[in-house]
Amino acid sequence: MSASVPAIRSVTARGLVVPIARPVKTAFSTIDAAPMVLIDVATDQGVTGRSYIFAYAKLTVKPLVHLIEEIGRELVGKPVAPFDLMKAMDAKFRLLGWQGLVGMAVSGLDMAYWDALGQIAGRPLAELLGGAPRPIKAYDSYGVVDPIADERALRRSLEQGFRGIKIKGGDGDAANDERVVKGVRALLGPDIALMIDFNQSLDPAEAGRRIARLAPYDLHWIEEPVPQENLSGHAKVRETSPTPIQAGENWWFPRGFAEAIAAGASDFIMPDLMKCGGVTGWLQVAAQAEAANIPMSSHLFAEASAHMLAVTPSAHWLEFLDFARVILAHPAEIIDGTVTARGPGLGLEWNEAAVATYLVS
Fold first, then answer.
1. Extended strands (E) in 184-323
2. 17-31, 143-157, 276-290: which has the minimum mean pLDDT?
3. What does DSSP assign to residue 133?
4. Counted domains in the chain
5. Has 168 been annotated as catalytic?
6. For position 27, what pLDDT does the model report?
């Protein structure tokens, strides 16, 4: 192997449950802490690539750690060549399929490979991919809110310069959704983008009724109104919706996006780096979005997403939901409502004291 091509020396995964400043209530449950897995891919050039993934539930933390380290044992000695490694993973898991935990593990590893390559080059990932870090317009992402009880928090978001706010819906009836949206719109004023996320909680008929009821409040998008796998349902809702439909955080790898785009499932798309195939998968999805003229936003992972949106032709919004702040030495910063990517690589460095505090034994 050429001395200029790094090889994988080891893969380490650590599970954490991290406190978050603002619990996120959805139509189904409340996220009051962030189950996470940190991934470290050490190379033979003395550089360690880092990434993290969000496990969604505490019960998946340990299985993800085990899965990543088992995959990692087979990667030792292989060149850090993300496209080749993704092709190998596709072949390895083709019969099993890689939605779910396998897909999360593969995507997380891919992000760590690219971080290592950026560090070795001494450049932010956005530069390595042919672009440059730049301020990316961000929206502040909330769970279910109450316009009165959460007024102070919402005003704080405006003071930070956010030009967009997302809230959750679907936890009550249509009248409750309208009450909340009406109150938040009055608080924000007409010039702030307001999005609502139903987290797949409605059927197409009910989604159509609620969207029509909320139309007077000038929503920027309606997110995941129906179950993510129901592409025809999304397309049906989109046909009659006066508000753009947003989806994609739960579509898996570039093939999933190709199917959704072909079905006409949404006006906008928002890949999740942990589900679309990491950096490698994102690049392919971004090419699809550009070809279809679809605005593309991010889901979670603000630090890495700022790099990817900087090289995405149809870049739209960056979601800011700061789950990782506690365990990062240099958390993402909001400046005038924007996030700018930092390097080298993804710009991730662990706060090891915090990691030790929240480690899952």
1. 193-197, 221-223, 245-247, 268-269, 318-320
2. 17-31
3. -
4. 2
5. yes
6. 86
Q: Is residue 163 part of a domain?
A: yes
CATH of the domain at 39: 3.30.390.10
Q: Which of 168, 236, 275, 307 is catalytic?
A: 168
Q: Give residue-wise pLDDT tens across range 231-256.
A: 999 999 999 999 999 999 999 999 99
At 141, phi and psi to the nearest 5?
Answer: -105, 120
First-last CA distance in the chain: 38
pLDDT digits (tens, 9 = 90+) for 298-357: 999 999 999 999 999 999 999 999 999 999 999 999 999 999 999 999 999 999 999 999
The residue range of the domain holding 56 is: 8-123+353-358
Q: Which residues, in sequence order, are CB contacts of 120 under 8 Å at separation 6+?
A: 6, 43, 45, 47
Lowest model confidence (mean pLDDT) among 3-7, 101-105, 243-247: 3-7
Asked if residue 3 belongs to a domain, the reply is: no
- Residue 150 sits in the same domain as residue 67: no
In this structure, is residue 145 part of a structural domain? yes
**pLDDT per residue over 127-178, tens digit each?**
999 999 999 999 999 999 999 999 999 999 999 999 999 999 999 999 999 9
Domain of 222: which CATH number?
A: 3.20.20.120
Residues 94 and 138 in one domain: no
Q: Which tokens hold the place of 313?
A: 């032709």
Indicate whether 22 and 115 sit together in one domain: yes
Residues 164 and 308 in one domain: yes
Q: How far from 88 is each of 92, 166, 222, 255, CA to CA, in Å?
A: 6, 38, 37, 16
Q: Is 299 a catalytic residue?
A: yes
- Dist. CA 123–CA 342, nearest whole Å: 9
Q: Is 307 found in the same domain as 177? A: yes
User: Is 155 contained in some domain?
Assistant: yes
Over the range 326-356, which residues count as b (16 or more CB within 10 Å of their CB) and which as e? bbbeeebebeebbbbbbbbbbbbebbeebbe
Which among 220, 236, 275, 299 is annotated as catalytic? 299
